[in-house]
Amino acid sequence: MPATLYLVATPIGNLEDITLRALRILREEVSLIACEDTRRTQKLLEHYGIKKPLISYHEHNERSRAAEILKSLHDGKSIALLSDAGTPLVSDPGYRVATAAIEAGFPVVPLPGASALLAALAASGLPVDEFRFVGFLPSKAGARRRALQEMANDPLTIVAYESPHRVLDTLSDMTEIFGERPIVAAREITKIHEEFLRGTAASIREKLAQRPSVKGEFTLVIGRSEQKTQIDDPAAEVLRLQREEGLSRMDAIKAVAKRMSLPKREVYRLSAEPGNNPPDKRRG
Q1: CATH of the domain at 18
Q2: DSSP string covering 58-72, please?
Q3: pLDDT tens, position by position, 85-117
Q4: Domain for residue 39, yes or no?
């Protein structure tokens, strides 16, 4: 197999949450491991008796390290890219080197595994059939509030990361913007003090504010908005989407149903009533 860049998911807390395939690749297939914090990765490798040279790869040296990693690939060396915890590139550095390797024609192979995003979503008890992941929210208050405002009427479940230093401020903003929308705040996932706080932004903030300190990275799962988009005539909107945006009838029905938070069958019924179907352009 040619020199390969492996994107290796690592535990987000519990060291047992790593795949057998990942351990084999790290032991046998790679010559070098690129990681965010060499000290943290070294602890993981020592736990499994793996000895490999490490280089740091993080947001501050990403450009120069990407060039070094690409050179090593050209020299025939396979490399593993690890984040401190979870899946590389997901709210972590790695995009630059993965893109460069792809453009240079090297295989880029993902080794799936632990993910705070998916773990929190699965255990949240909120709808998971459709969701929007926004990564870390902006650190500055104004930018964060603008980002949350854009999500206010989102019909999807939303997942965001937040630091323990900002989570109280973020929950205050969410209280004002999201109101009673259900929220789950997951912290220390897979660790000894794993915790899922469920309620509204206000109730969760109140619980956290009573503690001497707030610790652990947070994954916030925000329930869907129940606010319906105002469409006075669903059948007319279906026709408009067909005529102006070129959607098929069923795709237009799905779009209107989603925007109005109505069952598709109800929009289908309304659009199927006499006079609500567009003329067949193939006729006369």
Answers
A1: 3.40.1010.10
A2: -TTTHHHHHHHHHHH
A3: 999 998 888 999 999 999 999 999 999 999 999
A4: yes
